[in-house]
Amino acid sequence: MFYTNTIDHNIIPFNIKKLKMEKQFIGELGDVLDVRFLNDNDNNPSHIIVANNDEKVKIFDLNTWHCQMLKGHTDIVIGLDISYDHSLIATCSKDDIIRIWSYNVDRSSFVCVAMAEGHTGDVAAISFAKSSNAFIVSGSQDTTAKVWSLENLILDINEPQNLSSLFTLKTHDKEVNSITVSFNDKQFATGSADKTAKIWDIRNQKLLAVLSGHRRGIWCVQYSPVNPELATASADGLIKIWSTKDYNCLQTIEGHDASVLRIVYLSMGTQLISSGSDGLLKLWDLKTSTCVKSIDAHEGKIWGMSASTDENLLVTCASDSSVIIWRDSTEEDRQAKRENVEEVLLMEQEVSNLLISKKYHEALKIALNLNQPYRTLTIIKEILNEVDGRDHLKNTLLQFSDDHLNLLFSYVIDWNTNTRHSTEAQIIIKILLSILTPDKILKLPNGQKSVDTLLPYTERHMSRIERLSQQVLFLDFSWHSMKYLDQSNISSSDELPTTT
Questions:
Q1: b/e for 200-213, b at 16 or more Cβ within 10 A?
Q2: What average pLDDT does the segment 120-136 reach?
Q3: For residue 266, is it left (φ>0), alpha (ψ between -120 and 50) or beta?
Q4: Which residues in 135-155 are b (16+ Cβ under 10 Å) and which e?
Q5: CA distance 239 to 214
Q6: How many CA atoms lie within 13 A of 324 on its CB side?
Q7: How far apart are CA 368 and CA 347, in angstroms?
Q8: Does 500 have pLDDT greater than 50?
């Protein structure tokens, strides 16, 4: 086995005996413009298809990351799409041409089986029919959309066949940035730099609606997989949801501070994920129009985004030369949360049992592990109420790790701010100062911060105690003075006057 390095930063291992390329690893992608998942025969994601700042389309095996390059375009490939059954790949390019690719078993690779020529500008967007391989639609910089027939497509040929255009529509006043077919294959929608989205009837080849409302160009249009809705994403930072029945705007989603470049429906149309030119991903709950999660995903514009068929995986690509695959951990997080709740309940019950048995050391340790400040304080008060409680508490703290002591320090800071709990806080501080050296206290993760925070409140408590001591002395003096006066009055009253 020997390795070669190509001029475009790719690494290719060759089998010396067979003089055959074993794999190909891509070293530099540049701007990545679009990406899709490709499923295997079991309908599981097996590859990702990437269009980057190059005329060659790249297909990565998700298991080995071996890359196959699809050669044919003569200029940068801008857009991709996958047929509903994942048997065909469509690519569109700045060379004004659309190519259809299919997997050839004999060659063990994807080959170009068809070409579509007719646009007079960059072909920026392409979409397969959603329920069959009957046609594809394309949108171009020449402001037109074309519908191409795939019904007579022959896969087993040596040379790609030419596709015929069923019809061409003058769709917008500026370039078409996005195009998508409805899930019933009866309509398609276009989004343009002219700030509008339009819905078209495929059978009658006519305009159904003009969706106006965005203040800047539209980057992406997507049909809901369940509801009669169309979502549009714009450079004005807004996402709008439109009814495909009466074509009214149903809701406007705000939250992005930059252009929204891509949107994808998730969770049976109840959620929407969007990508921005600032590298952020945002997950939206469409019922409430609220952002469920925001992720700082990339360091550049997120040009492409696609979900796997089962929606467990999401792939994004951006101008920062990266492609990232994300996994949906919602169900795992829920299960972990349920297990955590059950574990906490069991441990809380164990703490209660230990308190009844007066096994304070174990109870206090569990309370700290559960990160329960109030329960910890309650246990400490129980210990202090015992005979020789302070000595018992000191012996308990001597057995604690630095992590536990640091956590206890953070609790003490809060307790010390409250007069009701300051006594326990001061007792713990005194114990910690007696069992830990100053250097060790300062070396605790929050040691210096704890000391700086404790000092002002401790001084305040000291002043309060001094005032109380003075008041107690004054009361004692007053009581003794009153007692002396009472005794004097009694003595005077006992002396009866004498009569002659």
A1: bebeeeeeebebee
A2: 95
A3: beta
A4: bbbbbbbbbbbbbbebeebee
A5: 9
A6: 20
A7: 11
A8: no
Cα–Cα distances in angstroms (integers) from residue 200 to residues 98, 189, 248, 411, in the given order: 21, 6, 16, 64
Q: Are strands 88-93 and 97-104 parallel, antiparallel or unpaired?
A: antiparallel
Cβ atoms 313, 307 nearer than 8 A: yes
CB 438 within 8 A of CB 429: no
User: What six digits make up the tokens of 412?
Assistant: 């003490």
pLDDT tens by residue, 293-309: 999 999 999 999 999 99
Q: Tokens 């408590």 — which residue? A: 461
* CA 92 vs CA 129, 138, 174, 303: distances in Å: 16, 8, 18, 15
Instruction: Tell me the CA distances in angstroms from 109 to 100, 153, 333, one per residue in order.
Output: 14, 18, 39
pTM: predicted TM-score of the whole model, two decimal places: 0.72
User: Residue 158: pLDDT above 90?
Assistant: no
CA distance 232 to 249: 10
Instruction: State the Cα–Cα distance between residues 412 and 326, nearest whole angstrom.
Output: 41
How many CA atoms are closer than 13 Å to the CA of 329, on its beta-carbon side? 7
Assess whether pLDDT exceeds 50 at residue 343. yes
Phi and psi based region of residue 248 (left: phi greater than 0; alpha: psi -120 to 50; beta: remaining) = beta
Long-range pairs, 10-15, Cβ under 8 A, ≥24: 10/67
Overall average pLDDT of the 91-107 stretch: 91
Write the secondary structure of the chain as one string of H (helix), E (strand) and C (coil): CEEEECCCCEEEEEECCCCEECCCEECCCCCEEEEEEEECCCCCEEEEEEEECCCCEEEEECCCCCEEEECCCCCCEEEEEECCCCCEEEEEECCCEEEEEEEECCCCEEEEEEEEECCCCCEEEEEECCCCCCEEEEEECCCEEEEEECCCCCCCCCCCEECCEEEEEECCCCCEEEEEECCCCCEEEEEECCCEEEEEECCCCEEEEEEECCCCCEEEEEECCCCCEEEEEECCCCEEEEECCCCCEEEEECCCCCCEEEEEEECCCCEEEEEECCCEEEEEECCCCEEEEEEECCCCCEEEEEECCCCCEEEEEECCCCEEEEECCHHHHHHHHHHHHHHHHHHHHHHHHHHHCCCHHHHHHHHHHCCCHHHHHHHHHHHHHCCCHHHHHHHHHHCCCHHHHHHHHHHHHHHHCCCCCHHHHHHHHHHHHHHCCHHHHHHCCCHHHHHHHHHHHHHHHHHHHHHHHHHHHHHHHHHHHHHHHHHHHHHHHHCCCCCC
Spatial neighbors of 144 by CB under 8 A, at least 6 apart, are: 119, 168, 169, 170, 171, 176
Return the bridge partners of 295, or none: 281
- Is 90 exceeded by the pLDDT of residue 430? no
